[in-house]
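REQUEST ID: PR-0412
SUBMITTED BY: lab tech R.K.
PRIORITY: routine
TASK: structure prediction, single protein chain
INPUT:
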Amino acid sequence: MKRHFVRVITITIVTFLLGSGIDDLTRLETALGLDTLFKIRGTRTPPPEVVVVAMDEASESRLRVGQDLTRWRGYHAKLVQELQRQGPALVVFDLQFIASHPDQDPAFATAVQAAGNVLMADCVQKLRRGVEDFYGRDECSENNQDPFVQREGEQAQLLSEHLIAMRPIPATPVLAEAALDHAPFYLTNDAENSIVREGWIFLDEIAELPTLPVVTWLYYLKHTGVLQDIIPSDIPLSVWLTERRRQCVPGLDATTKSLAEKNKVENQIDEVICHEDTRYLDYYGSPQTLRMESYSDVYEGKVNDLKNKVIFIGKVNRKFSPGKTDVFQTPFTDTRSGRMAGVEIMATQFANLLESRFIKPPFPPSLSLMLFGLVVGLLLTQFAGYPGMAASFLASGTYVGLAVWCFNRTGLWLPIAVPVLIQLPIAWLISLLWSRRDLLNERKRILAFVRRVFPQWMPFLPASPGQWYPEKGTAQLTSERDVCGLCLATDIEGYTTVAAHHTSHQMWELLSAYYQVLGHPVSSHDGIIADVTGDAMMAVWIDLPIANQRLAACLAALEMEQEVGRFNETSTVGRLPTRIGLHEGDLTLGRLDAGEISSYRAIGDTVNTASRIQGVNKYLGTQILASAVIVGELKNIIYRPVGFFRLVGKEEPLELAEIVGRTNALSESINTMHNQFAWALSAFQQGQWESAITSFQNILAIHTHDGPSQFYLNLAKIYQNNPPSEWIGVVALDGK
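STATUS: complete
OUTPUT:
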């Protein structure tokens, strides 16, 4: 059991550490596992409230603006007016109105102010190493090339390569003041060729500013009327969100209500504000999965069902073309679909907020990897070799199925790439190496036993697995060996009755299974099965230190008792209650020739005495008896002396002890009973029959099935009426 536990823990820890390490270095779980879950799930229906108005190729041609975004400015005023005719909930521009256009901005600002529900995106500009590396979208970088972080007094000094700074750049003042609110929206630079899997909720590097999808979500909730008395109406929600984000620091939010006082919407808002600054986006599918209308169609009044919708306006390339800007890779993009526009990603993040559904693990990924390694380790240890590999493979398939189901249903993300591709093969390799090591150790043990006991067979054993040399003959060596060892004898109680009620084939099947159960504790505790005859088995322990030999045999006997009990509970053919006896002394291991047949077994008085001790169990109603010298100095074994006996065919009396269990398995009541039994047995051995009778009766009043107490009570009553002539405290048995 301890060996199995060590193997399970080793497989768990090794697979967890290697899997986690490889994932940290390669991002395997995100790059392969998460993307695979998306592809297995496929397209998901987006919320109907979300509409993308695409500044696409068709609109470029019909409005004759080309790809120059500055030429679109003159059309936005009429677009906003056309949208307001239909009554949308919000209009969100994913465009940077940084450069001023005096001839067009006033009309646009007037339309925006009249609408009262227009939100605009601030550009987030990021620089590294002075003016050499600028990251931003469109004119955000093109028109703002001045360094904004420099060392004091060193105006010409470039920034350190490792120093990265970020700043938001809003629209021109006339447009920013006309808009309902504005907030930044930031995506990773397309030149980095990275897949966009996460969206920013807050930009903590820029004074805890909320991003535009979050601001849009909160304004939409306000539009639906669910935020009454929850948020103030006298300040922009982007400002309120920043203040609340800063209050999330422990100890600063003294006005926050308890969770019990908050409704579902309040708790959801708190969860968005006060948790991670990024979330994994739950994409709905490939580009253009969200409802998308052409800018020119909306502009010309051809789209009429936009009431209470949230309209996201931005540049979209409907036709795949390399070299386009403001397009990004997602788990669903490929060479056929093309990349996804930034405005679609913004709309996706808003839709996730609206559904309160992002991709997130149900618990820390490290815990998932640890539990997966533990389950695989248990299966590989419980079912060794190929059965264990098959069981772990089926368990892995079940786990992957559960992960796919959770992902499809709720967006919960369980790791699959690292467990299946890293942890499972490593666990298999460890298991196979351990099986190989066990095989070699078992072979060494067998060879050592043969070398000690049957040296004449050594020349015929294979030098290595798979080899056999039957033609190798050597001089005949001695066929026996005298050793000092310990014998364990077993016998089945009522075997004759059981055999009489079953066919020979049924008894063969029953005994075959029974001896498998009986033999395992012997081999696992370094014992050797010396003989099996009918319903009896003989095992021996040799060539071990005396204390180790005694402890191993006692532990094997206790395990036999437990395993036979389980066997009898599950057996459908018959029960085989078993008695066990242990004795140590000199014995001979050798070959006996009977005609042309030879058999090897243990022979000697020690073997016979172990068998006689086993037989005493039927008198005392016990299961495991041993000569007292075996258990006398063992601290890990619970036993109780049961008296001196003169066995059949023996002149010298022998003190016996019942082996009860291990030291950590003794209850207080049993300990008390053992003490009472020792006192009663002492009275019996001194011939104090009346006192012994009373004491044994007191024990049986509580422990009605204690066999030794019942045996001595009956004997004391007989001796009280007819005392032995020469009593020395030894019980003479007249049967085996």
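NOTES: The chain has 23 helices and 23 strands.
REVIEWED BY: pending
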